[in-house]
Prior knowledge:
The protein is α+β, with helices and mostly antiparallel strands. It has helices at residues 19-37, 56-64, and strands at residues 2-4, 43-53, 70-79.
Amino acid sequence: MEYKHDKGVAYGSTLDLSMEAQKIVKDGLKSVAFTKYGEKVDAIINVKTGKEVAGGFFGTVGAGWGAKNTMISGNGIAVSYNGIESSK
């Protein structure tokens, strides 16, 4: 499943997503999973995130000055442990 955040976020100073952006992506993936599969979802695994600055060169310059024009997305696999019993 895939989630794309429809509003820009602040770029941040690293190649990785900021903690705020990671939370937005994770919450978005949870929403997509529960909308599609309901209460059957126990976890979302293999989550991969990405970001892209809109606007080319000027978008990158703007992002450096704090413009919230970085688009974020993520994908992952929703899993269910239904039927798996604990060995304890």
